[in-house]
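Folded chain entry —
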Amino acid sequence: MAWFKREKKGIITSTEEKKEAPDGLWNKCPNCKKALHQSELQENKYVCHYCSYHLRVGSKEYFEVLFDDSQFTELFADITSGDPLSFVDSKPYSERIQDSMRKTGLKDAIRAAHGKIEGQELMIACMDFNFIGGSMGSVVGEKIARSIDYSLKNKVPFLMISKSGGARMMEAAFSLMQMAKTSAKLALLSQAKIPYISLLTDPTTGGVTASYAMLGDINIAEPGALIGFAGPRVIKETIKKDLPKGFQTAEFVLEHGFLDFIVDRRAMKAKIAAFLRMVQN
């Protein structure tokens, strides 16, 4: 009756001798739910090997993907948000800013950097969704404006990578003013005939979509990215109708003429570099 009695010892490793897997070694695809090894994911530009789902990444990863040898110079790094309205919701806005800084290691929802892409100079401003939902506050508008000034001064093309939930409500009108401010700066870039590329990633919504995200000389997006002004739930409740299948995906927006093309992240660097060579020649 051996099956009633354990004849061999089971797990004999003591608790002290057990080894834990290091944090950050594995990731999971939100789409197909398969396990992804972090080093392989990084080599594949943070795109799932199995279903080609584009995982959400921040400015650090985009700079790695686009800049030659991951070499770049970060600009305007020390600008931080104030609290002009002394805003309080579940916690004071000033505390929310400090908490986000500690959790993300970022100063705000955007970083700006200058470097080279296939040997060509490029100025990039990239948003980070992890910092208060990538919301557009006064710092985001100021960094974009300064990035455009840098492009104007140095005759360098400008790439804007948008990833945002929209305007930052804690700054109210100060946030909404950034829509006009950045659009006016982009008009100066257009007058100087300096290329502006807008890359829309998942998600790009709200005031960001309604301003600089849609004003590129070319507007491009990653596959499956959510792109829209108001969210699908808000629109559905407003118009009291069911929305079309795939509504507000990059593919739907492309079909209706608001994008020039959709590019896989693994081909993004080559595509942008090819466009820059074309317009500069």
User: Anything to note?
Assistant: The chain has a mean pLDDT of 92. The chain is about 35% helix and 15% strand. Strands lie at 26-28, 35-37, 72-75, 110-117, 120-127, 158-164, 196-204, 218-221, 261-262. The longest strand covers residues 196-204.
